[in-house]
Every structure is written in C-alpha cells, then in structure tokens.
Write a structure and sequence with these properties.
2 copies of one chain form a homodimer. The first copy, chain A, is an alpha+beta fold. Chain A folds into 2 domains: 135 residues, 60s Ribosomal Protein L30, Chain: A, CATH 3.30.1330; 143 residues, Alpha-Beta Complex (Phosphoribosyl-aminoimidazole Synthetase, Chain A, domain 2), CATH 3.90.650.10. In chain A, 32% of the residues lie in helices and 28% in strands. Chain A has a 7-stranded mixed beta sheet with strand order 8-10-7-11-9-12-13. Chain A is globular and about 65 Å long. The interface between A and B is large, with 77 and 77 residues. Strand 3 of chain A pairs antiparallel with strand 2 of chain B.
Chain lengths: 306, 306
C-alpha cells in the first residue's frame, strides 16, 4: 500500500525547477540560490494541533505546511522545498493521506514551495505529520530573534487572540510580508507568533538581551478574542486572549524608531502594521496600562512532560 | 518544561562551523559547500521501528539518525546538518528525551553532522522521532536509483538478513564508503537496503528501467540469518532472511563490469564488497540457483494502511 501511495503522490505533486531529483529516490536534491539554506521543522499531532473529528484532513495538511512557512517568514527566508513525514492510522490511512495532501499541495502552490520527498508510515495510533521546510535566506542574511536594540519599536502584523475559533487553520503565513519588509526597511529582529504574543516577544528579548514594554491599549485585539471572551467560562478578557492565546502566526518585528514611523506611514501591506510598544535596555517584560506598568508574564502554549 | 529541555539541548549540542544560526531561533541557517542540498527524512515510532520496552532510548535515538545517514549514503552525499522532531510521551518524556539525544549526538559526532534545530512536543501516545538530514552532493552529482545499465554488476557491501537480532540498531551507515566508492570508481546507480535486498534492488530496476538477476550462491548471508533460521518458526531459510528481511542498511551499487572487477580486486573498504549478479536489459527480477532462474519477488517491509 505504501508503494501505491508513493506512486499516487508522485503523479500528483507538481515538479519545480529547483528539484533536481525528487520523490522516488532515497533523498531529494534541491538547487538553491546560494550555498546556504534555512531549515525548520514542525511536528503536528491529531488531538493536539487539530482534531480530525472536528477538522477536515485538507485543513490539517494545510496547517502542517503553513506553520513551517510561518517559521521561514520569521527569518524573512524564501520557501524552496519541503519533505513530509506521515504516520497514518492503519484504518482509513489511504484516504486520509490523499486528503491531507490536497490541502498541503494547495498552500504549497500559493507559496511556490516544492514537495520534494517524504516518508510514509502507518500504525494503530493517531495521525502525526512532520514537515521540514528549507528556504533561501534573504540577501543580507535575513531576520533572527537576536538583534533588537533598546529604543526599537515593537511592530506587529495583523491582530491577535482567539485563533482557536478558526484562524489557527486558515491563517496566511507572513512569508511575502516578511521578505518585503526586510528588504524595504531596516528591521533588527523578528519572530512569528506561534505560542503567544507575550511568550514570543519574550523570546526576542531573551535572544536580544533586552527588555520590552507593551502598551495595552495599542495591542490589536482580534474580533475572535472578543467573541471568545464572551463565550468562555475562563473569564479571560479580550486583551488576555490577544496576549496569551497563541497560534496567531503574525510577525513581531524590532524596528528602529524612524524606520517604524516610515513603515506605519506607508502601511505597505494588505494586513495592518501596528506599533505596540518598545524594547528596553533592562531585561524584563512589561504591560503598560495608562501610566502603570505591571509585569507581563511570558506565558503561552508549552508542551508538558515530566 | 519544553523551554527547559530546549535550553538543556542547547548547552549540550556541539556547535559546528557550518551552522550559522542554530537552536534557539525559528529556523536554522546552514552553510553548504555548493548552492545545492540533498535532503531526506525518516519517521520512527515506538512499537514499529523499535520497542522501548526492549531497547535503550540511546539506541533508538542513534537509529533515528542512522537511517537518515544511510539515505545520504545511498546518494553518496556528505552529511551537513539535521533537525529533530520529537513527540514525547508526557510521562517520563524529559528523561527519555535526554537519553535519546545521548545516542543521537554520539552518532552525529561520528559522522560530523550538526544538530541544527528541532521541534519538541508531547502527548499521551508513544514516542515518535522524525529526523530530516541535509547533505552536500558529491562533485558530479552523486548517486541515484536511476542509471543502472544492462550488463552492470550488482555490487553490495557487507552481509544481509537477521538484522532484527541486533544490526538494525547498531549498524554503521555506509556514508564514507559510498563517498569513497563514488569518487574512486565509476558507479552508475545506488540505494541503501532499508526494506529488503530484493525490494530495494527492484527499486533500482524500476528507476533504471531494466531488470536484474541475483545468483543465490553469491549472496552474502549474515551469521544472524543462519541463527534466525534455526530459531524461527517460520521455516525461512538463511537465504530467505538475507533476501527479504530488510534493515541491513548496506549499499547496492550498479557498477560497469571492468570497474566492478577493479573494485573487487582492490577491496578498498573495511567491509567486504561482493558481486551478487547483474542488471539485465529486460524488466524482471530473477534469482538464479545453478542453471535455473526463478522470479525473485520484490517483497520486504511495507507499511500497511487501507
């Protein structure tokens, strides 16, 4: 069955000029722009990152690639190719795999990333999708979490919170936005928000050895955050959802003040750019409401094991 | 706990000059020899590829990287870097991860491959390890499954069968052997034996659009095949184990006759090279015993799903 499925994929997966050798060998050979590559990997599991009882397999396949594309966006890297590791449940695995690939290939086309190979397995457990994506760095090296300087503005794309109501499956990885901003403006550091606005901002401050303050009234709180706050029994406020929910897959950028001003005046993207605060010389993460600063806890989604 | 574990790995994982940006960012940046990379991925699951009730986590971690190195060997590619996706059982996951990494880092050191990043997850299911390795192709492009010509000899490294008795965990990926042979001799095609000698030889014939005949009395049957044949209730003969067991992680190469002769005379490796038959102009896979040819079934390990 494994051979049949590989043959099925092989006929359906479009060929890209950068794939010198693709599906059907022990490894793939990819032509890159430079003797350098950006590489990132994400593993998604049924029951954790989505529930196949609630979500179409196409959406799960799309998400599995989209989260990797979002990591490439965080580096301002151009997508080149990916490999797909599947662990399929034995029962229904063939149909599931085909539908996963339909979703995956659709977003692959949008972002011009080749599916260059993979590994297809089965067991009597739930679905696991593991994707590794490679890209070419932007000229100049691209973004990293390190490099934010005290005084830099905290610029974000889009809005935050309540992703569980739909965005976590349907989000657009900010690939082209990141490349455009990096090439057009001076940007010191960047990250994509997977675990939460607070936790991922904290990660920039950790790697950049600085602190940050977020102005509560400037955080772009999504409409979904408001909806979730009225629905949920947890009594979280909309702002809390925006700060701590995660899976927004928006960008946080560290931008020097004059460049930030230019960026906000230009608003060059189809998604809004917002200045939510600034990086500070001393370590520490703060939330400012009116004139009052309180500690902003770097909490968000984390896997638990002991 | 996830953050703690990432910090633990970060301190223990050696730095390699080719890793420009490593663990602790959204993606890694790898310096390559050429604007080209070889990429391969393998997913291993507890209960399928090993059983943690029987096998030390260090051995499982070693195997997860070794199977990827074997795929790079099949292409005669030089290992550069890998990324490691883990799905850990919640209970005992921290200790398990540390021990997996001990085994993984030990073989990574042997083959000078950098661990450049990963993704660490947890759930209430069994362990899954997904590794993607990248390498640099050999000058000239390296090996693929396509390219075997009728008349080429079938040359194999090492011996075959009974891998389940230990070799499947302790095997040496034939990375340096493949690079050396590819650079020193004319080699038309190659593959590593993961699923079985018969099935992986068949894969070369499929991609090379030819056939092959194996001489039964020339197949290097491992000592483990003999042991397994006496132990097992399946009444498989030692030769059957050698042909169909899989997980030998030896190389099958297609070598023109004069070069094969030179190779066998030189015996340049610490592992023996053996000529087990030849590639044929017509499709079909055959086993020759004395003067009699019978069909050699391309059977071996395949994942089942329906």
């Amino acid at each position: 069955m494994e051979l049949q499925l590989i043959e099925y994929f092989r006929q359906r997966i479009p060929r890209y000029p950068c794939v010198r050798l693709g599906i059907g060998d022990d490894a793939a050979i990819i032509d890159l722009d430079l003797p350098q590559c950006v590489i990132t990997t994400d593993v998604l599991m049924d029951g954790i990152d989505f529930r196949l009882t609630e979500v179409a397999p196409e959406a799960a396949g799309r998400k599995a690639l989209a989260v990797n594309l979002s990591d490439l966006a965080a580096m301002a890297a151009s997508p080149k190719a990916c490999v797909v590791g599947l662990v399929l449940p034995e029962k229904g695995g063939m149909d599931l795999a085909k539908r996963l690939y339909d979703g995956l290939l659709s977003i692959a086309r949008d972002f011009q990333i080749a599916v260059a190979g993979g590994d297809t397995n089965s067991w009597d457990g739930p679905l696991v999708i593991s994707i590794t994506a490679i890209g070419s760095p932007s000229p100049g090296g691209g973004l990293s979490r390190a490099g934010a300087l005290p005084g830099d503005r905290i610029i974000v794309t889009g809005d935050f919170g309540g992703s569980i109501l739909g965005k976590h499956l349907a989000f657009t990885p900010r690939v082209w936005e990141a490349i455009y901003l990096y090439r057009t403006y001076e940007v010191h550091a960047g990250i994509d928000v997977s675990d939460s606005l607070a936790l991922d901002l904290w990660r920039i401050t950790q790697e950049s050895r600085c602190g940050a303050v977020v102005h509560a009234d400037r955080v772009p709180v999504s409409e979904a955050s408001h909806r979730l706050a009225t629905q949920s029994k947890s009594r979280m406020k909309p702002l809390d959802h925006a700060l701590y929910d995660g899976e927004d897959f928006e960008l946080i950028l560290a931008v020097p003040p004059a460049e930030a001003e230019r960026m906000l005046r230009d608003q060059p993207l189809s998604v809004p750019l917002t200045d939510i605060g600034e990086f500070l010389p001393e370590r520490g993460l703060w939330l400012e409401k009116g004139k009052k600063r309180t500690a902003l806890e770097p909490k968000g989604y984390q896997h638990k094991f002991f």
